[in-house]
Every structure is written in C-alpha cells, then in structure tokens.
Fold:
Amino acid sequence: MATIRDVAKKANVSVATVSRVLNNDTTLSTSIETRQKVFAAAKELNYVKKKRTVSAPTCVIGILQWFSSKQEIEDNYYFLMRQGIEDYCSKNNINIVRTFKTDINYMEALNDVDGIICLGKFSKQEVENLRNLNSNIVFLDMIVENIEITSISLDFRQAVNDAVNYLYNLGHKDIGFLGGIEELEDGTVYPDKRLSAFENACDSKGINYKNYILQDKFTTASGYGMMKELIESEKVPSAIFAASDPIAIGAMRALQENGYKIPEDVSIIGFDNTELSGYTNPPLTTMSAPVYAMGIYGIQVINTMLHSKNNKLLSPMKIYMPCPIKIRNSCGKPQQ
Structure:
C-alpha cells in the first residue's frame, strides 16, 4: 500500500506539502500546478488516507458526472472540479455518493441523498428529471435555462474577449478558432459560448476569421488534425485561439512539424491553464479556468441550501466565474 512518502516522492514535493494539500489546508500557499501533481500522484499510486474517528456526517451529497471514469482520467478538467467538492466535503464531514451518467442505475444511486451536484452538460429533460428527484441541486460547467435552478459556469464571453483583445493589441488581424463539439444525451449539440464570443469579438474589431474556424473534439489529436487541415489548405492565420489547452497543444505540434515557428510565424493561445500548458515548447499562453474553485463554490451553495433556516428565501443564482489570462511565450507580434 502506498504511503504519503511515496506520493511526495512521485510528486517531487515534501511530505508536509502532500499532507496539507490532501487535507485541504486553506492556509497553504501553493500553485494549482503543485496541487494537481499531488492529486495525480495520489491517484496513480492508489493512495488512501488513514481513517480517523469522526462524528456522524452532517449530510450526504450526490455527485453526478457526465464524463465517464475513463474520460476523467484522460482529461483532468472535471477531476479537479470534483476534487474541489470532495476536499470541502472531507473538511466539513459531508458524505458523498459519486456516480457517472454512464452508470445504468445512476438515478437510483441519487435517490436518498440530501443534495445533488451535477458536473458537465445535461439535456433539458435530464435537468428536469434531476430537479424532480431533488430540489437541492446545482449544475456546474453549464448555465441552466430554468430560472429556478442554480448553476455555475465560466465567463466565456469575457475570457474570449480578453484573449482576442490580447492578440489584436499584439497586431494580429487574422485569427483562427479551433474548438470542440459536445453532444447531449438527446442528440442535440451543446452550443459552445466560446465560438459565439469569438465571432462577436472579431466582428467588433474587424478581424478576419471566417476562413479559419474548425470544430471537432476537445482533444490533443483533434487539435493536431484541425491545424493540419488549415496547413494543407494553405489557410494559416497569424494567430490561433484554441478552445482548450489539449486542442492548443495538438495544434502546436502540427505547426512545428510543418516548419512553423511559435510565436514568430503563428501565435497560439489556449483555454484551461492545465499543468501541462506550462511545459510545452514554448510555454502556452492560456486563459485560466478556476474549475477547482468552481467545485468548492458548488458544494458551498448546496451546503447553504441544506442548512438555511428558511430555504425558501434563497434565490436561485446564475454564477459566472472569471478566467484571467496567463501570459507565457506562445504569443508575439505578427511578422510584417
């Protein structure tokens, strides 16, 4: 069985740092990259914290994920969101029932919980079914149209506008968009707010973009393939906005394999600020998505719902979390 020292060695940090990260020590001042390394090392080594004698749990919260467990391993976006929820629950003595939408009986698993947090994208019918199951519910990473339901999402409009402004101020007048398509349970496509925000931002500044828009999946392979398509069609803009860091990293590889220098020939900016984005060549400029904090805010809202003296006075909220830019070395002024 793995020990805390094994996790510390794997993550290349001190034993004290591992202990404080895994115990959600709010006084610890460390980067999100370090926290991610600790969580990843603990998960890979199957580290289990020693059980302590605790009082009875205050409540039971259900976590429903639209990603499968396999997808969560491949993309830590939702893993970090869930980690924020679970760290808060551990500190506040809240029990968890975790289930995936790919589980056949996921609705049954949520029957007796006190509240539900839904991570990801859900169809209108799924939203209604879940709300009918439990009124103490919050949706993370999507804004639900129903005004009676609380949801928390990223502020894509402001983030994309900031990204386009950054490239425009560097002098770029031709900017491409590489994005992904997410399909809901009912077969409809979930609209990506990043694309509409990108088009509006470019239109407002007279930026040429219409010949450089491609969408596939939110993966590195898709980013590589979409960039190859632009290269082969000889439609390479001076800058690329990628809707996720994996897409951006795939696009960077395609550019470099075909003789393009970054940022001298093409600037590229991503979205997420994953740990890997700081270790690409060159390090990737990206928009920071505070998904760990989103998880914490989500469970705090549920906890407030459950422990408010008058739940009816709590108004549903639509929360948009800001995504500040992380400037590194993948963007520069375009060649004359």
